[in-house]
Amino acid sequence: GLPINISLPNISLPNVTLPNVSRAPVEFKATVIDLSVAPEEEKLFSIDITNHLTQDFDVSISIEGPASSIITVQTPSVKVAAQSIATATFRVFASKSIAPGIYIGEISLKAGNITHKVPLTIKVNPIAEPLLDVKTKVLTKTVAPGKDLMFEVTLINMGQTPSVEDITVTYTVRTLNEPYKIITQTQETLAVVNTLTYTRKITIPENTPQDSYILVVNASYWYGKKYAMSADSFEVSELPAPVLMLKAVFTNWITYLILMIALPIGYVAMRWYAAYRMAKLAKRRYVAPIDFKELPQPGPNSIEVGKIAETDVKAYIDVSQLTMHTIAAGGSGSGKTISAMVIAEELLKRKVPVIVFDPTAQWTGFIKPCRLKQMLDMYPKFGLKPTDARSFKTNIVVVEDPNMEINIKKYMNPGEITVFVMNRLKPEQLDTFVRRSIQAIFDMRPPESKELKLLLVYDEVHRLLPKYGGKGGYTALERGVREFRKWGIGIFMVSQVLLDFKGAVRANIANEIQLRTRYEGDINRVKSKYGQEYASKITKLTIGTGLFQNPEYNHGKPWFISFRPILHSPFALTDDEINQYVNLNKKIEEFEAKIAELKSKGVDTYDMEIELNIAKDKLKTGAFKMVETYLESLEKRLNKFGGG
Q1: Is residue 472 domain-shared with residue 610, that is, in the same domain?
Q2: pLDDT tens, 557-578?
Q3: pLDDT at residue number 624
Q4: Range of the domain at 113
Q5: How far does the chain reach from its first CA to its final CA, in angstroms?
Q6: 58 and 178 assigned to the same domain
């Protein structure tokens, strides 16, 4: 409170002669009385009385108003000596019977004929009672006689008191049917500030019958005036818990009510679902007697090429099966080349070299990443992102002479694709070059291998068939499919027709991919081999979806694969781009020869070799401008040695 100075200038006291002084003879220094107390709480305060006179005087003190029931003065009359200070002390005390509320009054101080009053306000606060909540959870819902019942208890302080002390917690096990019958009981004393969670165990007596029981947790607090209680049920049984659960389910009348409602609904739902499946199967584009467990599975020896058609199941091809050779056949625009390109991309990512004999230059697109919007829009369906589009290191060899030297070993670089562009050859020259490419493998005499070491792709191979004017090329392919397997070399043939490949060629091919076609020969082949249902589908296949067959899988039955979109550019390089590649490559070979000559003369060519190798690498990625920059730098350096 704030101190109050009270001056009484004209006080009249009996038998006291007031001298002529300049200050008040008596002063009361009191604190403004505004207090709060709780029941049974005591507080003290005081008022100072100052006597400036040369004689003693008495001050009588009394308390008026409702506050008088709470406040008392220790000394009702105070004698104040001359030239001194006396103190009047007051006690505030609210008994238990006092009702909470605000009590007002006045303290009256009388000195002679002068009375001074000090206002006071006393607030009696209600008693802050503790409030406790209890939660119980049985952890072992089934316990055998003689074993421990584990349970968890949480005590929560929900009142205004900072804590709840002296909580007597009693744990009682009772029978569910006779709740007043106590099986066992234990007790402890705890305290909680905010929340207290703990686990306890109580031993079930050996002679406890098998039945349903409850654990009752009773918390008594605030001197036994309040309590909180919680309970949870459990079973005493020697039966396993699953058996008890089944017993509880089948002995409950609710179970049978649910069954009476659910069975008719379930029957109707099953009939509807069966009809729905039949209608859906009737609309399906593809036949699917598929045993998914019997298809190629993901693993270190398989590549992901797309999805099983009309499903979200990923489709894989076993890499080892590619050494048994593959043929993809279909009409123009069916996606037969796409199927070969997808397999080639996956092998390149695994560092398996790929060599392509391409009469159309279509495969030169490997040197650039895909930027075609229609192709990129298909990526999400196969779990791809536009950022997955990429190029591959590509070597381009333009074939203008069918008798040119073919050094296969030179191009067996891990992760690189080499494209022999044969679009400048005449039909009869094409046949000659293919025959010589097969012979080049035999001349190389590669070591035997059970792993795939090289994939050879022959596109548009139907041009080698006798009916299209082919001669020795077809016979050379027969030799290749018979012998190359032992060397780990696989042949992938892309053709518009499949039936016309007879004899040793088809007999040694493990993987057949039939894409959309209207060629009656292939339609009848599928019909006679797999049935009319399959034959009727291959004329309606979507682009990039093929009927895949390998006798090692799906019990010999074919299945449909939707091949994923390609990652590289679907567009061939233009003639100008191909010529630019050829010219830059020719210049690289010239510089390589000059550097080798300088090196033989003892010249340090290390830096030039590094620069030349960078130019080679950039050429394989289609970075023609960068290649020109490196070659210009090399040319200047070679000129210094007279080698420019």
Answers
A1: no
A2: 999 999 999 999 999 999 999 9
A3: 94
A4: 3-124
A5: 106
A6: no
